[in-house]
Amino acid sequence: MRYVDTSVLVAYLTPETKSEAAEAFMRSPGEPLAISTWTEVELLSALGVKVRTGQLPRAGAEAVLDAYSHLVSPQLRHLPVDDSDHRRTLLLLNGWQTALKAGDGLHLAIAANRSATIYTLDRGLAAAAKTLGLAAKLLD
């Protein structure tokens, strides 16, 4: 299973410097693509940032959410977040071996608990995964 990090989903749905790489990945054949409910929370938050900073008009953000809900989401496997994911996040963050933030730690835990590889555009997340011995692919 290929776990899609929020950075990939946002770049796929909105114009960003890495949108071409995100689109190529999202349309690529292979194992099923999966996201978590946490990914959806972060997507909504990222769209809010884009609206508040003037990068995207409110109507544009609503159109992105509509496209996500009707076209993208049905093609993805949706993974629930449970207590074992939070507990694994604690283990990943404990010891401060990386610059991993809580939200990214949760993504790594969700993917790791399901033996999935996480695909990301976030260099820091990919580096942390490598340090922690977790499966991650940085998209360029």
Written account of the structure:
The protein has a single domain (2-138), classed as 5'-nuclease (Rossmann fold). A five-stranded parallel β-sheet has the order 3-2-1-4-5. The mean pLDDT is 97. The protein starts with a strand and ends with a strand. It has helices at 6-13, 19-26, 37-52, 58-72, 83-93, 102-113, 123-131, and strands spanning 2-4, 33-36, 77-79, 117-120, 136-138. With 140 residues, the chain is an alpha/beta fold. The longest helix has 16 residues, at 37-52. It is globular and about 45 Å long. It contains seven helices and five strands, in the order βααβααβααβαβ. Strand 4 (117-120), helix 7 (123-131) and strand 5 (136-138) form a beta-alpha-beta unit.
Give the SSE map.
Layout: E1 2-4, H1 6-13, H2 19-26, E2 33-36, H3 37-52, H4 58-72, E3 77-79, H5 83-93, H6 102-113, E4 117-120, H7 123-131, E5 136-138
Parallel strand pairs: 1-2, 1-4, 2-3, 4-5
Helix pairs in contact: 1-2, 5-6
Q: What profile does the largest beta sheet have?
A: 5 strands, parallel
- The proportion of residues forming helix, as a percent range, comes to 55-70%
Overall tally of domains: 1
| Average residue pLDDT | 97
**Number of DSSP helical runs:** 7
Give the helix/strand class.
alpha/beta
- CATH level-1 class: Alpha Beta
Count the beta strands.
5
Globally, the shape reads globular
What labels would you give this structure?
alpha/beta, Rossmann fold, 5-stranded parallel beta sheet, 5 strands
Summarize the structure.
This protein is an alpha/beta fold and 140 residues long.
